[in-house]
């Protein structure tokens, strides 16, 4: 059974003054289990970035507590700086004008480690992350993928136990996303690291995370295992492959009757969430009458459909209070 490495309790954060105050985090509470990969999901403005800034100390919450291994890191800031690292998109947590080796040297010195580049652990990390060829390259000259590896090298060199990645797939092609997925799995296993991933990419989250927390307008809609999201909250997610030509009237009719639908006319694919089989039958009959014929139907229950369903329910209820 996993133990919580981090507990966030009733975290509240507002911006503005008394007359014009905006609540960004509304009593946010959830746990992060040790040795797991935990996803933070939510649309723009959901509160993910503000939450991360509160965890790493870039912002102070108005109220609430953040515990790392049962220590309140809002009061004991040394515990936070010694154990928690954040990897910002594009390597913004590194000094761009310095080389990879200089960054590693600088940040390890901040943690009281001198001559780190001469240690066996340094050599092991360089080999493990396959960054020997970029050690003397300035971070500004690296690709996004290599910047991430450089950031991970700094985190491993400083022996951080909790690593937070903010939008790690931004700017990465499919090949590098697959490499990143494999690398994070290896890091968790080989270094016993806990990882928090904040991302809009639900496919990435579903492939890599054990648990996830869904935020909407500063509220926690749901926190739990990925399998729990899918099994309990998943709508039927259908992919229809059709033959024929949809005109603008057909497209408007489909989008009017179905709230969550995506139509790819180039590949002749309709992707949609249906709450019940009757709606599916109705739509297929409509398409048939328009001389649009369904060649194949695939049905899935996945994290994407679960998140859309949860957010839709939350919107209908006026948000979580």
From TrEMBL:
Entry keyword set: ATP-binding, Nucleotide-binding, Transport
Per the record's keyword annotation, is Signal included, yes or no? Answer: no
Do you know which SMART domains this protein is assigned to? AAA
Q: What is this protein called?
A: ABC transporter ATP-binding protein
Asked whether the UniProt record includes Nucleotide-binding among its keywords, one would answer: yes
Q: Which residues form the ABC transporter domain?
A: 6-242
Q: Which GO terms describe its molecular function?
A: ATP binding; ATP hydrolysis activity
Cited InterPro entries: AAA+_ATPase, ABC_transporter-like_ATP-bd, ABC_transporter-like_CS, ABC_transporter_ATP-binding, P-loop_NTPase
One Pfam family of this chain:
ABC_tran
Annotated family: Belongs to the ABC transporter superfamily.
Q: What is the lineage of its organism?
A: Bacteria, Bacillati, Bacillota, Tissierellia, Tissierellales
